[in-house]
Amino acid sequence: MAHPVLLNNIDHKDLHVQTGRGARFGDNVMSALTFPSEFRDVQACYPIVFRDAGNGSIEAHALFGFQQGENLFLGQHGWEAAYVPLAIERLPFLIGANGDELMVHVDLANPRISGSVGERIFLPHGGTSQYLERVSSTLLTIHQGLQQAQGFFAALQEHQLLETFVFEFELDDGSRQCLAGFNTINDERLAALGGEILERMNRAGYLQAIYMAIASMSNLRALIERKNRIHAAQS
Question: Is the peptide bond before 92 cis (omega within 30 degrees of 0)?
Fold first, then answer.
């Protein structure tokens, strides 16, 4: 169970973070949260899908596998992709707010936490390490990206551009697989939008993000190839 606490250089002066990649660090996840300003980097490696986050809100996710607990990008030597989404990079840290002030928290139950192994969070005299400075920058980017994303998601909903999809495929060994529970962009509804709406969405930067999400779905083929290679190696 997660145990997030406000980070400080007194209680956590000796904490280290192991920055390797692997299932033992909790990286065996099917997807990770992303946001439109990250889509350019994400779409180069992963499918970008959408899902209902509850209360009528939408989330975007970078997809790593086809079932819970499956990350097809984890290999013997770590994460096998040129880009790791920021929602993964920031672990075991998270951002909190005290009024308008943003605060860094750390999950003490995260398997990356160590008392002696990995990157120091604070310097021996109590100063902030370069590692923590990078983490703080990453957390701020995520926070700002998720805030800016709300207008994008509202536009998708307003113009009914999301549709549920079921992706069924067959592996080389003959087994059938199915991905469900996510949404993607409806190309036909997008093409039917009027010029004024498209111009407004373009000025807001939403069209670029939409087309990146559409283009990212070609990465499903690469995911299937990865799954086939892993199955073949295990058989």
Answer: yes
Strand partners, 103: 96
| DSSP-derived secondary structure for 140-156 | HHHHHHHHHHHHHHHHH
Provide CB contacts within 8 A for 5, sequence distance 6+.
11, 105, 106, 108
What is the C-alpha separation between 79 and 25, in angstroms, rounded? 12
The pTM of this model reads 0.93
Q: How far apart are CA 66 and CA 195, in angstroms?
A: 37
pLDDT digits (tens, 9 = 90+) for 208-228: 999 999 999 999 999 999 999
d(CA 34, CA 53): 13
| Tokens 């701020």 -> residue | 140
Identify the H or E element spanning 232.
helix 219-234
Residue in 175, 152, 182, 147 with CA at minimum distance from that of residue 47: 182
pLDDT per residue as tens digits for the range 63-114 = 999 999 999 999 888 999 999 999 999 999 999 877 778 899 999 999 999 9
- Which helix (H) or strand (E) segment is 179 a member of? strand 176-185
Look at the block and give the residue holding tokens 């770590």.
78
